[in-house]
Amino acid sequence: MMRSKSNRWKGRDGLETSNIAYWTIRIMHDNPILPLVRNPYKLLRAAGLEQGHRVLEVGCGPGFFTIPAAEIVGDEGHVHALDIHPRAVERVKKKIEKKALKNVTALCANASDTGLAGGSVDLAFIFGLRHVAGGLGNMISELHRVLKPGGILSFEKTRGSEAALIEEVERGGFAYTGKKGRIFLFTKEGA
Questions:
Q1: Alpha-carbon gap, residue 139 to 137, rounded angstroms
Q2: Backbone dihedral region of 74: left (phi > 0), alpha (psi from -120 to 50 degrees) or beta?
Q3: Cβ(101)–Cβ(67) under 8 Å?
């Protein structure tokens, strides 16, 4: 990763990410009051996380959902916490170390090129991600690749048209199966 002159970090894929955006998210997500109004366990259960799942968290930020996800999937499961910003990944690594978790891997990568093996993930979730580096279509294609047949994609809608979101994800090879609150659930079609 290289720091550019504009307070941005350039990742290995050449995309830049803002330090200001990272610090804003970190201040919000590391606030001890946030879990009282935005319960991560409730949202993750609505997304379909279960014990033993192999999970991909897209846009983990400073790890607000990462540690609860690791606790839900337990020792038999695993969480791949992915973010494009190196400071976010370092923050998650510190949280993993502090909790002595063995079932989490923090990855600094673009969601359109995760580096994970095909068909290796039971569930992928995307919460609070307002911008997708490389485009939503590329990310959906990659998630389809890494999910097992019948795997679940859980997407928290943050803005825009619900119909447009469903249409775009379905174009990527997923079937819309419903929603729980703001969380849209899709299942991977095909093998």
A1: 5
A2: left
A3: yes
Residues 110-129: tens digit of each pLDDT: 999 999 999 999 999 998 76
Q: How far apart, in whole angstroms, are the C-alpha atoms of residue 136 and residue 3?
A: 25
Ramachandran assignment for 10, one of left (phi > 0), alpha (psi -120 to 50 degrees), beta (any other):
beta
Contact criterion met (CB below 8 Å) for 147 and 153: yes
- CA–CA dist 61, 92 (Å, integer): 8
Which whole-number Å values give the CA distances from 139 to 17, 39, 99, 134, 174, in the listed order? Answer: 16, 26, 30, 7, 13
CB count within 10 Å of CB 108 equals: 19
Residue 5 confidence class, pLDDT cut points 50, 70, 90:
very low
Q: What does the alpha-carbon distance between residue 132 and residue 48 come to, in Å, rounded to a whole number?
A: 22
Composition of the chain by helix, strand, coil, percent to 5: 35, 30, 40
**114: closest CA among 94, 140, 91?**
140
∠ CA 137-185-75, rounded to 5°: 100
DSSP letter string, 68-96: HHHHHHTTT-EEEEEES-HHHHHHHHHHH
How many angstroms from the chain centroid is the CA of residue 181? 18
